[in-house]
Amino acid sequence: MQVLGIETSCDETGVAIYDSEQGLLGHELYSQVELHAQYGGVVPELASRDHVRKLIPLIKQLLAEINIKPSEINGVAYTAGPGLIGALLVGAAVGRSLAWAWQIPAIGVHHLEGHLLATMLELPAPCFPFLTLLVSGGHTQLIQVTAMGKYTLLGESTDDAAGEAFDKTAKLLKLGYPGGPALAKLAEQGNPETFYFTRPMTRQPGLNFSFSGLKTQVLTTWNNQELKNEQVKADIARAFEDAVIDTLIIKCRRAIKQTGLSCLVIAGGVGANKRLRERMEQFTQQIGVSLFYPRPIFCTDNGAMIAYAGALRLAKGQQEPLEFAAHPRWPLEEC
Ligand code: KG4
Ligand code: ZN
Known about the structure:
Order of helices and strands: EEEHHEHEHEEEHHHHEHEHH
Helix content: 40-55%
Number of helices: 11
Mean pLDDT: 97
Structural class: alpha/beta
Distance between the termini: 22 Å
Largest sheet: 5 strands, mixed
Shape: globular
Strand content: 15-25%
Bound molecules: 5'-O-[(R)-(carboxyoxy)(hydroxy)phosphoryl]adenosine, zinc ion
């Protein structure tokens, strides 16, 4: 079965073809970063309009590249939520219409399920059950994944998500948009000994997170510096990154102890962070747990994860009726 995957939940237009026997046949990604950069963040209406402009040409480009005709496609999967409603509706309308025109089934995929399962596009792939740390721009969650569609939320951020904290902190330090990768790059030049920020919510029990206070610590520290040069900025970036990573590791350690799971999967955009990957590798090796994560380009939003999750659901016989829906808010456990 060959499934076309469409991702348009935020500021990336992603498309891919996944073949249930041969694996991923190809994928294409168009990032709207330049469009939103001048506003310092994603402008939802501009995002929707750009998806309208780019989605169909991107699908045509992908099919030409991998030499596949529409008649060879057996199903269409599109991100149905959560995300920006206008952006989601573009992918859902195009996906559902193509499926109708091609007389094949369509399936609306939960964006976070896509992230959770993206690791399965890699070799070796993790086996169920596993623990997932999902760290994206909108979510920070620890999820017990028992099987496809069986997700138990163990803990989540009560305020800013990890990616959001990276982005907001980067904005405070005037690093531009998108903030996460820029802050991570600057942190590489930073001295880890200069500043120290707290590891939020690690003293009390539980698996929830709170990252919103970190940006205030960053701002206060920056404002208190007499010398405001690039090195000080880099030292602050490094201390911030270390605080986030330490916190994530402390909570993963707790979740592994609580669930007894021996397999940890990192998913979502922050999973592309180099230092996070290195530190997670050290940590899991120490405690004898297997670690899996997608290649960096499949940590951030992409069409491949949607094609893959959609292919699994279509193979189970699930499909959407002709009318389609998009859900800007959609708890993972309800998908
Ligand atoms: O999963 P994703 O592409 O979109 C959502 O579903 O939210 O995640 C985007 C988030 C952004 O907040 C971005 O700043 C962050 O992931 N991010 C990073 C890095 N690359 C992307 N954060 C830290 N270090 C990175 N290298
Ligand atoms: Zn995402």
